[in-house]
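This section describes the prediction task in plain terms. A model, or a person checking by hand, is given the sequence of a single protein chain and must write out its three-dimensional structure as a string of C-alpha cells. No templates, partner chains or ligands are provided. The sample shown here is typical of the held-out split.
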Amino acid sequence: MKKFIETIKNIWSIEDLRNRILTTLLLTLIYRAGSYITLPGINPNSLKALGEAGSKGILGLFNMFAGGSFARASIFALGIMPYISASIAIQLLTIAVPYFQKLQKEGESGRKKINQYTRVLTVFVTGFQAFAYVAYIKTQFAGAMIANYGPLLFIITTTVLLTAGTLFVMWLGEKITDKGIGNGTSIIIMVGILARLPQALLQEISTRASEGPGGWLKFLVELTAFVFITIGMILLVQGTRRVPVNYAKRIIGNKQFGGVRQFIPLKVNAAGVMPIIFAQAIMFIPATVIGFAASADAASGFMRIFSDHTNPWYNVIYAVLVIVFTYFYTALMFNPNEMANEMKRNNGFIPGIKPGEATANYIGAVMDRITLPGAFFLAFIGILPGLAAATSMNTAFATFFGGTSLLIMVGVILDTLQQIESQLLMRHYDGMMSTGRIQGRTTTTPAAGF
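The expected answer:
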C-alpha cells in the first residue's frame, strides 16, 4: 500500500503527466454529460420503451458502445461506432487496395491521409446511421415524439445533430490521444461500458439480498468467479510468444551496430475483441430477419435459438463463429511475409531458419499454433455472459462476466496503465507494479519496422 501511495505521488508530481490525466478526465466528463442531453423533439419521459428495446439484440450492442446514449435518444446516441466502422473499413482497404497500401508505407504523411479518409467516411456512415435511427424512432416509438414538432423538422434536425454528435465524440477521442494519456477512442468506449457497472452491481446486490443468507453466499461466489475470469482475461490479453531474432554485426567507424538478440512478440490474441463483435453481429441477423417475416410462429424454434443467449445451441454456434473469425481477422491483420521481408532488409534472421520464405512459413506456423488456444479461450469468454445469465444472475450484471464488455475494459485499462508506467520509467521513477514493469505489453523490443 505504501508503494502504491508513493507511485500516486510520483504521478502527480510530474506536471506533464498530471495535465494529461486531468485533460482526459475533463474530456470524458464532457462526453458523459452530453450522453444525457436528449434530442430535440423527443419527450425524455417517454423513453422507457426505447430503453427496453435498446438492451436487446444488435441494438443492445450499439447501446453498450454508446454508453447508454442510444436508449436515452441523446445527441451522442450513435456514439463512436460510426468512426469505428469507418476505421475498420479503411483498415481492410489497406490490405486489399494497393493505393492504401502505399499510403500506409509512407510514414507520417501517409498516416495523415489515411486519417483524413477515415474522417470523411465517418461523415457518410454517420449520416446513413442517423437517418436509420430517425426512421427507427418514428416507426417503433412515435409516442416518444413531441406532437407539435414537425416531422420534416424532426428528420432534418435529428440527422444533423446525430452526425455532429458523433463527429464531436470523434474529436474528443483524438484530443484524448493527443493531449491526454492516449487511446482516446478506446477510453471513450470503456467509460461508456464502465458507466453501466454500478447500476448492474446494485441490481445484483438487491436481488441476492432478497434471497436471504443463501443469496449473499451466491453473490460471494459470483464475485470470486468474476475475479478469476478477470485474471484469465488479463492472461489472454497479455499473452505473447517471443520469437528470437538475431541481427548481423556491423562495424561502422569505431562503432558496432547489431549483433544482439531481440524478440518478436507474437500475441496469443492478435485479433482482440473483433471476433466477438463480428460473431455477435452475425448471430443477430437471423432474429432480425425473422422479426420482419409475415409468420414468426412458423419459425418459433429457430427464433428461440438465436434470440436466447442462454440456449445451448446458441452458445455452440456462437463459439464456433468466434473461433472462425479469430483466425479470419488474424489472417487479415497479420502478414508473416511482410514481417520476414522487413527482417531480411535489416539483416535479421531467426536462429536455425533461412531468411525469406522459410522465415515467413515459420512465423505463420507459430502464429497458427498460438492462435488456436487463444481462439478457444476467446470463444469461452464470449459465451460466459450467456452461461452466467442461465444461473439466474441479473442480465445486466452477467454481461460483465466476459464477452465484449470485460475484454474491452481489461485491454484498455492495461494499455492506459502501460502509458502511465512508460511516463514514470522515462523519468526514472519506479513502475506501477512491484517488478517495475507491466508484463506482456512492452517488455520486449520488437524487430525494426514493427
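For orientation: The radius of gyration is 24 Å.
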